[in-house]
Amino acid sequence: MTEDLINKKDIYFPSYLGTNDNLITLLNKTTQILCDWFSKADKYGPLPFDENFKCLMPHEDGNSTEDLFSDIQSLLNNSFNPVHPGSLAHLDPPPLIFSILGDLIAAGLNNNLLAYELSPSITLLEESLCKWFAMKIGFNDSSGGIAASGGTLSNLNALIAARHNSGLGSDPNSVLLVSEDAHSSFIKCIRIMGLDEANLIRIKTDKNGSIDIHNLRKTIEKCFIDNKKIFAIVATLGTTVRGAIDPIKDISEICKERNIWLHIDGSIGGIFAITSIPIEGLNNINQANSITINPQKIIGITKTSSLLLVSEMRTLENTFSTGLPYISSKEDIINRGEIGIQGSRPAEVIKLWLGLRFLGLNGIETILKSSINRKDFFIKNISKHKFDIYSGPLHIVSFLPKKLEPKDSDAWTQTKVNELINKNFMLSRPKFKGKYFLRVVMGNYNTKESHIEELLRLLHA
Q1: Of 413, 415, 432, 436, which sits most exposed with the smallest number of CB within 10 A?
Q2: Whole-angstrom Cα distance, residue 32 to residue 139?
Q3: Host H or E run for residue 373
């Protein structure tokens, strides 16, 4: 591409006249570079192969298109590539093609989900899609939800609504109960809410990594004696290290007895609830007041894509509504900036909508089943004599050689991670129960049994 082909002054913004040929040319060039990068993933592996990336800043005069495309290529060459079948470290699957297109449309529209007048079709789309998800998991007709940039923000939206709903908005004695294996983001949530980390009370887990109900009841009684006021209990539907599921039915009964808000962090496993896949412990999630679901973590919806679903939409309105005095509103339309922390938001729901429409329920189920099948195949074939294995009903497995001391787990896992990445397998090494583990996440649709067999051969060597 040359400057003769693209005149910079003609491509600052899309034109409201003509065919936008310059934009089409630039999009075609960008698409080719991106697709070439995907196509070379098998050759270069999951992690960057080019050490020459330079973070160049703007000059007095804008750069040429040749310079920018060269920089784009360098950026790609220094990026993690989730398309590679050895990308098994985290909850970051390959991007769904129609979701990529949704990102493009969202950027091109540049609509703002702050208000209906700034995003008329997308406001209705997000409202409808959240309602569809809510109904699919068993909530009633007064339910709904809102999209956010990730599980942390969805959880934070839920907890702020829970505390507001309980009337404990400024009470320093308000506390949150979570599993000791709950996601680390709840520490962040507590800090943002102006509470001390002592207000985050952790419940012991059993041998399966699930909340110990007996310990939960004892903790609730102690909170009552100590004048600690519980504004929410969080059940985890898929813990980070082993994919465990808390006993939602038992926890929901306790919450009903005590009139406590039940929030489910379903960032990892919640998406399974819209399918007929039999996952142990997935029943009764419709007894919750709120649930976080992150389609980005397994079915390939491009980042970011998280949903907070609530059983009663009015709880979000009551918590976050300010009136938006500078925005024209319709009486029968809820401005989406009035039901969550975020004001301005991009139209990210488009990529979720297109991705789901393209897959259909059968396609979603196929992707999710394949992740469970890969996990089962890995567990079936890994040596039970050599490794201690920690897993649950979802697609995550953590493991460590038997009888390895905590002080030795750091060096062993680091050495093994480095050995594996040299063979184009990327695993993570979380710290869990005082030891470092290797963790494999089987959410990569490009990973076949032959790849898993090769990974197991390397682990058993």
Answers
A1: 415
A2: 44
A3: helix 349-381
